[in-house]
Amino acid sequence: MCCSIQYGGKITQELDRDLFFTYGYLWIREEIFGGNFQLNQSNLEASGGVNYMIPDYADHASFLAHINNMPDNDNPLVFGLNPNADLTASLADSRQMLATLIDTQPSDAAAAGGKTADEIVKDMIE
Q1: Does residue 58 sit in the same domain as residue 92?
Q2: What DSSP character marks residue 47?
Q3: How many structural domains are present in the chain?
Q4: Claim to verify: residue 62 and residue 77 sit in the same structural domain
Q5: Residues 49 and 20 in one domain
Q6: How many CB atoms lie within 10 A of CB 24?
Q7: Alpha-carbon distance 107 to 117, whole Å?
Q8: Which of 96, 105, 107, 115 has the fewest CB atoms within 10 Å around its CB?
Q9: Are residues 25 and 43 in the same domain?
Q10: Co-location of 43 and 73 in the same domain
Q11: What does the DSSP assignment read for 53-118?
């Protein structure tokens, strides 16, 4: 029922609907109310990752501590992606950052005796 009414039934692509129902099947079930239900299907601790679990704590402070100990970056395996997805995302972020740096440099800085865009980027990196 949750998957059917999500987005007001506005999932238009059949494969997106199948994916959404798959996530619903995996994560919206009776077992999530038991202790320490694991959201990811494989053990990620063996590869240096974190297993995402719904903890079974009795107090609010323990939940907050658990949340604060979660990693800043997720392992791509959590989402069923190839481990190289992290590398691809990092490369795309780097390209976007460099393009933004270059786009924000004044075009006449070198002609006026200022630093070139390459020199400015090098200084920032150092």
Answers
A1: no
A2: G
A3: 3
A4: yes
A5: no
A6: 15
A7: 9
A8: 107
A9: no
A10: yes
A11: EE---SSHHHHHHHHHTS-SS--GGGGT--TTHHHHHHHHHHHHHHHHHHHTS-TTTTTTT---HH
Q: What is the pLDDT of residue 119?
A: 83
Q: How far apart are CA 85 and CA 51, in angstroms?
A: 18
In a shared domain, residues 94 and 105:
yes
Between CA 85 and CA 83 the distance in angstroms is 5
For the record, the structure tokens of 28 come out as: 């919206």
pLDDT single digits (tens) 57-104: 889 999 899 889 888 888 787 777 787 888 888 899 999 999 998 888
- On whether both 78 and 95 belong to a single domain, the answer is no
Q: Are 45 and 51 in contact (CB under 8 A)?
A: yes
Choose among 86, 93, 89, 90: nearest CA to 44. 86
pTM to 2 decimal places: 0.48
